[in-house]
Write the structure tokens for this entry.
Amino acid sequence: MPVFRLRLVDLHRRLIEPARVTVEGERITAIEALGPDDAVDDGFLMPGFVDAHVHVESSMLPPVEFARVAARHGTVATISDPHEIANVLGEEGVAFMLAEGERACIPIAFGVPSCVPATSFECAGATLDAAAVARMLADPRHRYLSEMMNWPGVLGGDAEVAAKIAAAKRLGKPIDGHAPGLTGEDARRYAAAGISTDHECYTLEEARDKVAAGMMVLIREGSAARNHDALWRLVGEHPNAVMFCTDDAHPDDLLVGHLDRTVAACVAGGLDRFDVLRAACVVPVEHYGLPTGLLRVGDRADFIVVDDLDSFRVRETWIAGRCVAREGKSLESFSACPTPNRFREASFSDEDFALRVEGERPRQVRAIAVEDGQLVTGEAIASLRPRDGVLEPDPASDTLLLSVCNRYEPAPPALAFVRNMGLRRGAIASSVAHDSHNVVAAGADRGSIAAAVNAVFAAKGGLAVASEGGVEVLPLPIAGLMSDRPAEEVAAAYQSLSRQARELGSPLRAPFMTLSFLALLVIPALKLGDRGLFDARAFRFVDAVID
């Protein structure tokens, strides 16, 4: 029967006091305040952190391994959208995540993906229609309807979209949103449809507008998208309408920290500790109706012990009365899992990546302009001179060739150009390519692109770097999204590939994560899908070559 004598952080009464906390089995059975003369141990006992929106798949780890790492940083639960694997394997993929999640050392609350495929403008591996969504929502293991990215469908009254929302409402389950840049009357209509959250705000004005519309805003600090600096003041303005999330956290980042870093940054910025901890620990539990304990008598014994309330260095993480991590190390063993997948056989040559035009005069092309640390992109106009009727990439002007290859059906590669990736030579490729997870590649020459893409197809999914020294691959045999190896091995391989990408010239903090979002058609402005260059502002295809 564990008994703790520590300073207790009571987030309901907004106070810190010495206390004796008794745990029997999975529950807290007694909390007794101690006097000033009573001896207590160093450290603070407090509720654990809850990541309010994360795609486990983006860690490149299956749920059990993801949980082993997250628990080290004081994460006691996550709200997780299995959207990525659903776009590859449909209900089979979601069932895999549920089954593996039940073996995880921290609770992972999965939702039902609402947008599979994410758009009708690309080829994905599966479709979840309104009937499938309603059937899956009826399973009590699914706690909510995952991010409704099709905000035009919500505002336009699309019948399938409306049916999915109605199914969640009938069951009283929350509905997550995803509407970058949506403000004003459109945001109010989106919220009025039943959408309760948004994690895509990238300006404080947009976040304030969505809170005014009745939505809760999730401040995201992930591997590619980082909005903390723009939004952190919202915690002090609306502490009951804010949560924290990572959305997408790559394995090397996850090994270093999780929400503990976000919380520490907010406190260092001068925000009230209780407001910050309420957003990090309490609001998601209340919003999603999680069984996670909040350090009250009768609650499940889910909590953490931290050294102090500045760094929030986690000493221990307890779930249901059992210590699962101590002093930065998991107390759980690595556990192997199945490797469901879907990947066609294919091989490409440099000729497959030739964007041909008539004549030899210079051509104006649209180029996706990458913004480091953001999912949104811009549009740049570049001038390229054909060589033998082919528009070649021009590393000197940072105009690289971008390609998306269909992993599910035979089709020629889609081609466009991208700026700010920075590669001076070689290429990188990935089967982690939101949302449909075809194979996306960017490179300084067609031969390197072909080599990197072929390596990914040969591995049935993964990340690859092609350079003059050859090709290095991190295989991702679980749906082309996740590894079946321990987190430390995956993180080391991922760091090696990222380092090689930077050695090839990329200035980006997370080049592979940024690459993966260049295929995300629902985020403005320009993106590339397997069917061509897409303008997410107008929701239509546009030509890569202007004239």
Remarks:
- DSSP finds 16 helices and 27 strands in the chain.
